[in-house]
Amino acid sequence: MIYFDYASTTPIDPVVIKHLSSYFANFANTSSLHQFGQKAKKILEKNRKDVANFIKADPPEIVFTSSATESNNTALKGIAFANKNKGNHIIISSIEHDCILNSANWLKTQGFKITKIPVDKFGWINPNDVKKAITKNTILVSIMHANNEIGTIEPITEIGKICHKHNIYFHTDASQTFGKIPINVRKMNIDLLTASSHKIYGPKGIALLCIKKGTNITPLLHGGGHESNLRSSTVNLPLISAFAKTIALRHSEHSEESQRLFQLRHHLITNILKKIPNSYLNGHPKSVLPNIVSFRFDNVEGESILLKLDQLEIAVSTGSACSSNNLKPSHVLLACGLKAPQTHGSIRVSFGRWTTKKEINYLIKVLPKIIKHLRSLSPF
Question: Which of 94, 116, 183, 298 has the greatest CB tally within 10 Å of its CB?
Answer without folding.
Answer: 183
